[in-house]
Amino acid sequence: MNKQEIGSMTAKGGFINETDICDKFIDYKNDSEAKTWLTIMGYNPKKIQKLFAIQIPVRINLEKAISLGVSEEKYDETIKFKKADIQVRVEIIIDDIMHIENISLKKSNKSAGFNQVDKRPVLTYKQTWKFNDEIATWLRLFTGDILPEKVLSKKELQNTKHKRRLFLDEIPQEKMNSIVQFFRNNKSLIISDILRGRGGLSAEWFLVTRKNNDNSIDWILKDINNVCNFYSQGEVKITPRGSLKIGRVTMQRKGGTPDPTSLQFKINPLALFEN
Questions:
Q1: Which of 38, 90, 136, 189 is the most exposed place for a label (fewest CB within 10 A)?
Q2: Helices (H) and strands (E) in the chain, counts
Q3: 239 in any annotated domain
Q4: Which structural domain, as residue segments, surrounds residue 93?
């Protein structure tokens, strides 16, 4: 089975969103892109008995989660780590079983750069990934959740670029090495959590749509294992701008509003077109 494909389509107004993708899947008998996507996922469109496509809300209560196939026991984990934007349910004539496919959708202009894929306070990541208190403290200094004046001397503060946060290359070498080593040792887990997620609404497929200057739309659909492997490629290292590069993922202070002191992970989804 071919697990990845690139194609193009047209969209009214030159953009496409979750509702548009759901509508295309629902109309799969007449929609050539939907037929191609289903084929990539391993289905023969001619043998589909029933198909439902649902946009997954940003906020989900327990009742809605259960309707999406999430068990009550997995609800908390699913809500915390949800990455799917669309759920497609396919019933095949042969086995009469309802197969569920969860898709993460990323939209980008051709000229655009990086997209946020995850954002949380440092202490939330500490609970999830189990790094130690020392790493948590320096990451909170990096995001500005702890002000440098609480930790550094007046003399040390004079050598910092910003009074409200530290850059990673301003952290003492030994502490910086500990941060780099943690993310190096746990790279696979971290990439999986920020792209695939966990629980009943983790993503199994990654669909990127790219808007071109002429308003045409290109798309690429890949299985999530392929995507995680792609963005894991590369070193874990401090960037020239004092952030952290984890393979093809950038970890930085979010800044702006809301949640300026959160830790943010970004990727360039258009890089998949060049893979």
A1: 189
A2: 10, 11
A3: no
A4: 4-112+188-233+270-274
Q: Domain count of the chain? A: 1
Nearest to 115 by CA among 258, 260, 220, 248: 248
| C-beta separation of 89 from 230 below 8 A | no
Within a domain: 163:
no
Task: Report the Cα–Cα distance between both ends of the chain, in Å, rounded.
Answer: 19
172 falls within a domain: no
Which residue reads 């609970």 in tokens? 127
Assigned token pair, 200: 């009943």
Q: Using the CB atoms, write b or e for 217-238: b if 16+ within 10 Å.
A: bbbbbbbbeebbebbbeeebeb
Q: What is the Cα–Cα distance from 146 to 53, expressed in whole angstroms? A: 44
Phi, psi torsion values for 233, nearest 5 degrees: -70, 130
- For 51, the 3-state DSSP assignment is strand
Its sign, for the CA torsion 189, 192, 195, 201, is negative
Q: What is the pLDDT along the chain (275 residues), one digit of tens a residue?
A: 344 577 776 655 555 789 999 999 999 999 999 999 999 999 999 999 999 999 999 899 999 999 999 999 999 999 999 999 999 999 997 777 889 999 999 988 877 778 899 999 999 999 999 999 999 999 999 999 999 999 888 888 888 888 889 999 999 999 999 999 999 999 999 999 999 999 999 999 999 998 888 878 889 999 999 999 999 999 999 999 999 999 999 999 998 888 899 999 999 999 999 87
pTM of the model: 0.91
Q: Are strands 217-223 and 86-92 parallel, antiparallel or unpaired?
A: unpaired
Tallying the residues shown for the chain, one arrives at 275
* Tokens encoding 274: 């060049």
By the 8 A CB rule, do 264 and 253 touch? yes
| CATH (domain of 203) | 3.40.1350.40
